[in-house]
Amino acid sequence: MRVFLTGATGFIGSRILPRLLAQGHEVIAMTRSGDGARALAAAGAQPHLARLEEPAQVAAGAETADAVIHTAFDHNFETFAANCAKDAAVIAALGAVLRGSDRVLMVTSGTGMGDPGDGSPAREDICNLTHPNPRSATEIALGKLLEAGVNGKVMRLPQVHDTRRQGLISYYIQISRQQGAVAIAGEGLNRFPAVHVEDAAALYALALDTGGPGARFHAVAEEGIAFREIAAIVAARLGLPLVSFEGEALARHLGWFAGFAGLDMPASSTMTRDQIDWHPVGPTLLEDLRACEAEG
């Protein structure tokens, strides 16, 4: 197939690209820069220059593609809601190109969208649009395309990590260093799910040919790590005290991250694994945190 991959030079997309090429797919790979285009061409992909701020420019990359994997996202979490709205606009533009065909559009969301609201792990068969995660904009946009007959699927991600980046935890590390202390909400018993970046990339490639319109996949290797365990490693690595805050004190210390610090976000991938022969083999989140190449 000819696959259009957005975010092809990004943290996850750069791992998906070689897997698609190894499977024999032709890849049209999106990047924002000339340097990125040259690197993608050298890797064997066809570069497509585009920016998320220009949805039509992005969607042009899908014109001749048999399938689309959309991983590009603006990860400035200080403007997270606005960036989710920007993602929805890109998804709508991609869908307009694919409408009237059976070509796959796989978008990227968060596992929080599968939260059943009762403390049990998020599941693939749930779409909780009342969840506080602004990623709901992504799944609302996909839902509209499904109603229009687009063959859309969604890959939901937990904290994606290696020894260089650990999802939201990377920002937490930066804030902790700036503040001179590592904060948890209350006792820090809330849980974060996680997956190694190579395992996430493998699932994208495997899921491209799996399931019909509306299929949801959870790239979850670990259902939930207690946040206090994460914080303890961060505190040890930075040589900073571990402190507990609530309410306004937590918000003053962590800023925008306070909205995530106390969330309990366990997530399951049982239904995904029932459909796909996917067996995560990468290091755990705590192992990567202990071995991280840089503390911030």
What does this protein look like?
By secondary structure, the protein is an alpha/beta fold. The protein is built from twelve helices and twelve strands. Helix 1 (13-22) links the parallel strand 1 (2-6) and strand 2 (26-31). Helix 1 (13-22) packs across helix 7 (197-207), helix 4 (80-98) runs parallel beside helix 5 and helix 6 packs across helix 8 (227-238). The protein starts with a strand and ends in a 6-residue tail after the last helix.
For the structure shown, list the relevant keywords.
296 residues, alpha/beta, 7-stranded parallel beta sheet, 3-stranded mixed beta sheet, 12 helices, 12 strands, 39% helix, globular
Morphology: globular
Fraction in beta strands: 15-25%
Find the structural class using helix and strand composition: alpha/beta
Q: H/E element string?
A: EHEHEHEHEHEEHEEHEEHEHHHH
Average pLDDT confidence is 95
Helix content: 25-40%
Question: In angstroms, what separates the terminal alpha carbons?
Answer: 39 Å
Q: Major beta sheet, specifics?
A: 7 strands, parallel
How many strands in all? 12
Quaternary state reads single chain
- Strand arrangement within the widest β-sheet reads 3-2-1-4-5-6-10
**Please, how many helices?**
12
List low-pLDDT spans.
none
Rg: 19 Å
